[in-house]
């Protein structure tokens, strides 16, 4: 599992670094637009959780991604918090719903919504007070929620595509690293 989380984390880090110039520009221009594109960093951890179905896979993937992307982003060490806290929250929801042993879609999307909520709370801290208004807050919340739920749905599709392509899934009780 560790190697698979590291692989998903590395792919996520590459995505974060590649998107960094775009996301940085969008973040400065519009918090609402950023709420839609800034959530892309959640895709890798979500795919890892869906594919591996192992407790801790979402959090571990997010932490690996943040540590690999750390030297290349404007956030610096804060990227560990920005990726780690939402991942931890989603992981706790998945564990509480016993998603890893008995997958249920409602817990999957509830975990994604919890992840979006924490991302939204983090984004409130960095929104320029000069542009802060009730509408900006509402639309930023809606943007975060929609984008993360869309990414959670995409993670389900990627999981199915990997399965159809014949990629072997990790088996419980076996060393799959």
Characteristic terms for this protein:
single chain, 177 residues, mainly alpha, 0% strand, globular, disordered C terminus, membrane, transmembrane, transmembrane helix
Describe this protein's structure:
- The protein has 177 residues and is mainly alpha-helical.
- It has one domain.
- The protein contains seven helices and no strands.
- The relative contact order is 0.16.
- Keywords: Membrane, Transmembrane, Transmembrane helix.
- What is the gyration radius calculated from CA atoms? 16 Å
Structural class: mainly alpha
Total number of helices: 7
Mean pLDDT: 91
SSE order, one letter for each helix or strand: HHHHHHH
Question: Low-confidence runs (pLDDT<50, min 5 residues)?
Answer: 173-177
Please count the beta strands (DSSP E, at least 2 residues each).
0
Distance between the termini: 6 Å
Question: Beta-strand percentage?
Answer: under 5%
Q: What's the assembly state of these chains?
A: single chain
Bulk shape: globular
Domain module count:
1
Helix content: over 70%
Largest sheet: none
